Amino acid sequence: MTPENQTSVARFFLLGLSEDSEVQPLIFGLFLTMYLVTVLGNLLIILAISSDSRLHTPMYVFLSNLSFTDVCFSTTTVPKMLVNIQTQSKAISYTGCLTQVCLILIFAGLENFLLAAMAYDRYVAICHPLRYTNIMNPRLCGLLILGSLFLSLADGLLHSLMVLRLSFCAHLEIPHFFCELAQVIKLACSDTLINNILVYLITTILGGIPLFGIVFSYMKIVSSILRMPSTGGIHKAFSTCGSHLSVVFLFYGTAFGVYISSAVTHSSNNIAIASVMYTVVPPMLNPFIYSLRNRDIKVALKKLLWRTVSF
Fold first, then answer.
1. Which 3 state secondary structure label does DSSP give 90?
2. CB neighbours (10 Å) of residue 267?
3. What was the pLDDT predicted at 119?
4. Is 5 helix (H, G, I), strand (E, B) or coil?
């Protein structure tokens, strides 16, 4: 193959989930439905929290930011896939592909950090209830959110800038429905050692530390719950953590599932299907998890819908 400098690369080609033309309408309808459900569900969560003053607490501030992140995460990948199916085109521009890589890393990282911040919030609420308002003050919440955003932006920009230094071959087909960093790096003709080292190093640090924080927080939470004298207190503590734990298991479970499938199977189609579970399914299910398991959210949603209907 003849190498091309990155400045002369016009476009990449996203192969998607299937090349069967008869399956494309089904995929289009399925992903359009999932995307609309994701956007509507998360926007309802954001509106419910913003419209109810009782929910202006750290836990729900983090939740509204998580919902906004989920909307952005899905919007980064799904609309382009729908446009390509509708226009029967697989092309994505070089700039568009790098932008997609950067945004995916930013919003995936942001979700990772927000889940860790929410775990810390639950730890303080259950293990240090009398000091909760002093510890989880607006300043600390703002710093946690801004710090999460800063680290996520730095991660996305660093990897994107490192991709800019690569030269690419003429065969620019990506066996995915979006531009995944690892797949883009594989297409490079130049040396990718530094890129691969950075991927593994930064993923281990920025993914491992928040996960360790979540595990440590819940170890302390469980230890504190087991020492509670009343069953009512135990039930209340578990109910406040249930929704967050479900989202954590969904996010990290699907992420590990994609990693394991990519390590076990060499089928690019299977890896692409597994990536759907990581990029599309969690943002769609998160609003249902919080609305079905959280009484305050259900009450706020009912009030919001009642005001909308009355208006």
1. coil
2. 13
3. 94
4. coil
Q: Residue 288: how many CA atoms within 13 Å on its side-chain side? A: 9
Distance CA 65, CA 95 (A): 27
Going by C-alpha positions, the residue among 204, 203, 185 that lies closest to residue 194 is 185
Q: What confidence tens digit (pLDDT) does each residue in 79-136 have?
A: 999 998 888 888 899 999 999 999 999 999 999 999 999 999 999 988 898 999 999 9
Residues 6+ apart with CB under 8 A from 163: 98, 101, 181, 184, 185, 195
Take residue 181 and report the two structure tokens written for it.
């960093």
Q: Are 250 and 259 in contact (CB under 8 A)?
A: no
Lowest mean pLDDT among 80-84, 183-187, 237-241, 266-270: 266-270
| 22 confidence band (pLDDT: 50, 70, 90) | confident
3-state secondary structure of 304: helix
H or E element, residue 205: helix 193-226
Q: Per-domain residue ranges for the chain? A: 6-310
Under CATH, what is the fold of the domain 6-310?
Rhopdopsin 7-helix transmembrane proteins (1.20.1070)
pLDDT, residue 265, reads 59
Report the pLDDT value the prediction gives residue 10, as an integer from 0 to 100: 67
* Burial class of residue 105 in the structure, from the number of CB atoms within 10 Å of its CB (0-12 exposed, 13-18 middle, 19+ buried): buried
CA distance 150 to 81: 28
How many angstroms separate the CA atoms of 166 and 178, rounded?
A: 19
